[in-house]
Amino acid sequence: MVVMRGVKLPQPKDPSALRRLMGALPRRGKGLLLYLHQNADLDAVGSAIGLKGILPHSKIGAHQSVSLPAKQLAESLGEVVEVDPPLEGYRFVLIMDTSNPSQIGLEEPPPVSFGILDHHQETYTWPTPHIYVDPSASSTSEIVCQYYRLKRTPVGEREAKALVAGIVGDTAKFRYASPGTLLQVIHLLKGAGITMEDVLNTIEGEEYFNYSRKIAHLKAAQRLRYRAVGDQVVAVSVVSSFEATAARVLLVAGADVALVGNGGKRRRSKEVRISARAKPHLVNLGLNLGEIMAEMAPKYGLQGGGHPPAAGMNGRSEVPLSRILTELQEEILRRVEMLMKGAGEGE
């Protein structure tokens, strides 16, 4: 057993609630769909593959699309993620890593029995008793790990790779991981007899940094607009794909906060997708992008939320994307200025 002095494995916020949710699912996953948000990321796909180790007859689906790293993960592990499956064909739908219906293309909850397993701040009240949400968890994958321990079930090699990949994705390669989360990863690696190289090979591969992604990142830099408060830079840009990774690239390039909107074909259909990322020093100061996105999204008829360092906004809106990005930039600048003043007064 791996021991780190003073560090404990992350525990379920409410073990009874987690057991109740899982107890409501069809036995061994027969007739069960594990349904993921649009452009399903590593945590969404990783947590679903991990949970499928306990519910082997379940199927995995995603709304609209699967992100490139998550697609690489699924293909490497021999898993099929069906895009836009018909929900009515299932006995039960477990919506994973999703904070509101718009992320799965619905204005209302699905027309079948459903449950929620998520780790985002709650921005929507799902009308179901079958729900487990723990915002203190680093990822939905971490919650699935906790359920394995509740069942006293060993995690197989395939599932361990998927769950570690999910944690890697939602902690920005451990940048935001707690000691407990790191210990959880060590347990998964050691228990399954795998290495981090094994995990990274499943999500990177030859296609991980492909031509389209490179061009999207370069265009994000080319179209960048920035404003600053003090020495803190808030940058905005527009791309037609890969907005999440483009936002991370802008942080590496020098921005302290990056907002990247999707301005391609989706905009012509009035669809909006915005990714926001912030550096750790501002998050530690109190900046919470998830809060900002959740508060401002309704103004544009959108849904928003996420975590302090990484958040998003999506949906259909009549408001021009440029205006939304400008107003988000102004609000973030305002909050950064307040936090900086507060920190100065506290010294």
List keywords for this structure.
single chain, 347 residues, alpha/beta, inorganic pyrophosphatase (n-terminal core), Diaminopimelate Epimerase, Chain A, domain 1, six-stranded parallel beta sheet, six-stranded mixed beta sheet, globular
Descriptive account of the structure:
It is built from 13 helices and 12 strands. The radius of gyration is 20 Å and the shape is globular. The longest helix has 26 residues, at 321-346. The protein is 41% helix and 18% strand. It has helices at residues 15-23, 42-52, 68-76, 140-151, 157-170, 179-192, 196-203, 211-222, 243-253, 265-268, 280-285, 289-296, 321-346; strands at residues 32-36, 59-62, 81-83, 92-96, 114-118, 131-133, 225-229, 232-239, 257-262, 271-278, 303-306, 310-316. It has a 6-stranded parallel beta sheet. Strands 7-8-9-10-12-11 form a 6-stranded mixed beta sheet, with helices on both faces. The protein has 2 domains: 15-203, Alpha-Beta Complex (inorganic pyrophosphatase (n-terminal core)); 212-346, Diaminopimelate Epimerase, Chain A, domain 1. With 347 residues, the protein is α/β, with parallel strands linked by helices. The model has no long low-confidence stretch (mean pLDDT 90). Helix 2 links the parallel strand 1 (32-36) and strand 2 (59-62). Helix 2 (42-52) packs parallel to helix 3 (68-76).
